[in-house]
Amino acid sequence: MKKSDYLKIFLVVLVLAAGITVKDSAVVKQYLPVLLAQVQSLESEEVTPLPQAEAKQPASQKADKLADGILLITALDVGQGDSILVQTRDKNILIDSGERKEASKLLEKLEDNKVEQLDMLVATHPHADHIGGMKAVLNRFLVKQVYDSGQSYKTKMYGDFRAQVEKDAIPFEVLRGGQEIAVNEMVKLKVLSPRELYKGTASDANNNSLVLRLEYDDFSMLLTGDIQAAVEEDLLKNCPQDLAAQVLKVAHHGSKTSSINEFLAAVRPKVAIISSGNGNKYNHPSPEVVRRLNDLQADVFNTAVCGDVIIKSNGKTCDITVEKFYDEQQMKAA
Fold first, then answer.
1. With contact defined as beta carbons under 8 Å apart, do 274 and 298 qualify?
2. pLDDT tens digits, residue range 222-264?
3. What single DSSP character describes residue 38?
4. Residues 302, 334 contacting (CB under 8 angstroms)
5. Cα separation of 154 and 256, whole Å?
6. Is the pTM higher than 0.70?
7. What DSSP designation does 284 have?
8. How far apart are CA 309 and CA 322, in angstroms?
9. Do 247 and 269 contact (CB within 8 A), yes or no?
10. C-alpha of 290 from chain center
11. Within the chain, which residue ranges are assigned CATH 3.60.15.10?
12. So what CATH class is 71-333?
């Protein structure tokens, strides 16, 4: 049997297989003309090699540049940890970086979101599930400014992070309640807590988390780190006017230590985002916290089920999309 006969058989099998799987298969469109030409060339004893298939790059969720006037916030799925990317047309801000073991996943997600440099890197508090990926981020991207809560609580991981900041001579600032950071002429971050470091609470490290309010015209999002009930009570006393927000990053991964009824009622979120890992050992989020949010008729999104949660706002309204398909039963189970 001639080579051209073998190729004809392969061509028939290819077409039949494509017909079974996908109509107007891209494979057939790509290779059918080439194969036909090769059959002809083989029969005339002139062999034309098949082209090398091009490696396909993963499709990005985002355009190369955001449109003017658009604020994009992505709660990144980094397992049992927090990492939130805030983007405008000309600025990238990363708040927390998840666990160290998820660092490569975080870097991939940042690159998929067209991040080339970070204008601000914020560490809400020095727990491993919030700062574990910081050193990897510093090693991969140009970082222009670093902020944290200035806790005396030290770990080797936090020490490595701070040492890298100092080595790279990156501007560093400790934030306190009452400060404001301008992202651009329209978007700002207000620091609500801590006004001074807490001492003697159930968890000082968690309670000294930076609490940030992201504002853009009529849109607002409250980011609460891992604060617990004691800080929520202080926020209700000290700055109740700053708590109402369309979107809430639920405190401490939805733990029962946080999200008291009075605090949630003051925030009145339309959307609540919980960052947690699938099947995590802490059983986050607490069913009680989820019930409280449901009672307020908030739409609850859990990264353990939804993957990345993407919020897009024009300063008036916001749209929510998720990375993964899920159903109500999956959300309840998580």
1. no
2. 999 999 999 999 999 999 999 999 999 999 999 999 999 999 9
3. H
4. yes
5. 25
6. yes
7. P
8. 5
9. yes
10. 20
11. 71-333
12. alpha beta
Location of structure tokens 């499709």? 59
Could you tell me how many helices (H) and strands (E) the chain has, helices first? 12, 17
Residues above pLDDT 90, as percent of the chain: 74
Asked if 272 and 293 touch (Cβ cutoff 8 Å), the reply is: yes
Name residue, tokens 């301008």. Answer: 182
Residue 207 phi/psi, 5-degree rounding, is -70, -20
Distance CA 327, CA 322 (A): 12
**What pLDDT, in 10s, does the model give residues 5-33?**
544 555 444 454 544 444 444 444 454 44
At 285, phi and psi to the nearest 5?
A: -85, 160
Name the helix (H) or strand (E) containing 190: strand 187-193
The per-residue pLDDT for range 124-167, each reduced to its tens digit, is 999 999 999 999 999 999 999 999 999 876 788 999 999 999 99
Which residues, at least 6 apart from 219, have a Cβ–Cβ distance to it below 8 Å?
A: 71, 246, 313, 314, 315, 316, 317, 318
Nearest one of 248, 286, 249, 288 to 268, comparing CA atoms? 248
Phi and psi of 31, rounded to 5°? -105, -20
**35: region left, alpha or beta (phi > 0 left; psi from -120 to 50 alpha):** alpha
